Amino acid sequence: MTAHDLLELRRVSRHFGSFRALDEVDLTVRRSARHAIIGPNGAGKSTLFGLISGTLATTGGTILVDGQDVTRLSVERRVGLGVATTFQHSSLFMRETVLENVLLAVLRRAGRGFGGWRSVRGRTAAIEQARTLLERVGLPTRHDVRAAALSHGERRQLEVAVALATEPRLLLLDEPAAGMSPAETARLTELIAALPDEVTVLLIEHDLDMVFGLADTVTVMHLGRHLKTGSPDEVRSSGEVQDAYLGTTGVTS
Ligand code: ADP
Ligand code: MG
Question: Which domains, from first to last, does the chain contain?
């Protein structure tokens, strides 16, 4: 690990009984990277995100964020260290409004920093920040709509706003474009590309146009193993990778 690396996985494993969903995976993610993870279904991609975010415990290996061992830390502690995740299955509060969903995340992050929700100043600042985030993800006119009433694409946008509310240094996106229209995917790609350098992005995605349009680094996984990491060009032209994934396997989620 060098000072340039924000995330490092050392021989990280997750076994379920005798099944090796992830087996001794080494991976480093450079600070400010736009790093994509691809691989067929069952490769272990979502499991990997569970281990990094802390929703799932490792059965072996070490995970470092900015040089700090987080392997045994709770999800909350990792969020505090700047690790934010949008999951493959939505984690929004469906009965709350768009603005409320973002506000909850803003307040969770700010704690007493705003002088508390009870103070008018605190409330105003939190609402202001939530509004800014919703503008940034392209939902400036949907504040008062319940999350349940959003389109699929809008929900993913809202999830990104919720994740950004925690002021992450590492943003984990698990198939954010799944089920999106081409126009929604394009908008999301733009939004991710426009994130500031301080936010390192690790992205699982089946939409290879999005992957190759956005990523500076691509990791290919297959059957719980780390197959290859390289530039988008290196990965595209790797025969090994095409056999495992690009050529022979259907790209479905
Ligand atoms: P991907 O996201 O690459 O499609 P996953 O990480 O979701 O793959 O799953 C990797 C493998 O681990 C799959 O074969 C899946 O069935 C298995 N797996 C995931 N979670 C569990 C679990 N809780 N118990 C048993 N097997 C699991
Ligand atoms: Mg998955």
Answer: 1-82+168-253 (3.40.50.300), 93-166 (no CATH)
